[in-house]
């Protein structure tokens, strides 16, 4: 109840801000009436890649206090406003990939699976980030994948294929809005794509005045209000279970906001990129750990919006992944408590078990719960197998313990939840389409004053990479 009242207060606060703005300006370039909402000052779009509805339910059960009779609500529950369809352009059927979905969320246009910021005719389309920059907002992104991965790429770049990481990295520098770079702040992984033999895009950004951070601590020392590129891994960040920071997305989000805050407002894209990767891998332990990092991020953003009620936060997924089910194989049971004490990801356990003299004991210690002698013997045998088989064995063991089910190693076509809070949140209520999210954000940005006249976005396609260097996303969703 308290939380619901708080949300009303956000909206009331935003209305007051809008009214104050109207009464104090007679010659404003924006035509407003006294009761018209002028749009949020700051817009934060959060994409939880792969987070279908089963993930949010599973997360609620995962953090449930089993000593009480009820399942306690979690941060997402109070913020739910509706549901979005995710289907791509007709040419790609009913099940979207992250590129088409990100293009829809970023530009409001449905495209084919694989498209990065281009329409079905492979023509470049404008994103809400381009438009925010055109309107004088500061802009940024904070993600846990490489920053050239499908979701962040679709807000900046234009490429016929998500696989062309090098060309997409070039676009981060080459695509300009009114002569300016699209993003002022870029945080995530991906030095491999920015420091290349054929082109050092990172050096170009540094020459152009960007601060560079290659570690979380160094990021904290960048002076507030800087333009910054922070790349913390050659490709993606580690699984959160293996990361030195267990709140890495929350941390990157805070740091991005610190750099972006200014009088004219900002647009920030945040992505919990690896919920999707856990889904592709059918790895329930990492799925829940990545969800927890997201939940911490949303807790922080709730606190931020209560201090800054002129900020809008929208959270949704691009699609669901893996066909996750809570309970499986005809058994009416789900037991997430087996996931509470993991000391490393299943992926790391699969690597490390091979070098252990007592593999069963190592797995028992790393999982954090007692194994039977038979189970320990099983892992002694598993340790002699190939790494991919070891990984599968550890994940299957946790699936059996928790009774988790999966139907796919790819995406599924179900609708996804939409969560929103802060100024203008109610524009996202009900059953909507993923393209509606971009359309609403465009309309909010559109309400802002035009800061200079005759602005044209200079959007051009860059040529594709050499096809020999591309990656098969069916085989490897991380595509390194
Ligand atoms: Zn995916």
TrEMBL record:
Residues forming the catalytic site: 98
Binding site for Mg(2+): 49, 149, 151, 271
Name of protein: Alkaline phosphatase
Organism of origin: Alteromonas australica
Cofactor(s) named in the record: Mg(2+); Zn(2+)
InterPro entries found in the cross-reference section: Alkaline_phosphatase, Alkaline_phosphatase_AS, Alkaline_phosphatase_core_sf
Cofactor comment: Binds 1 Mg(2+) ion.
Keyword Magnesium applies: yes
Sequence similarity: Belongs to the alkaline phosphatase family.
A Pfam match: Alk_phosphatase
Residues the record lists as binding Zn(2+): 49, 276, 280, 318-319, 411
SMART domains from the UniProt entry: alkPPc
Keywords on record: Hydrolase, Magnesium, Metal-binding, Phosphoprotein, Signal, Zinc
Region forming the signal peptide: 1-20
Gene Ontology MF terms in the entry: alkaline phosphatase activity; metal ion binding
Alphabetized CDD domains for the sequence: ALP
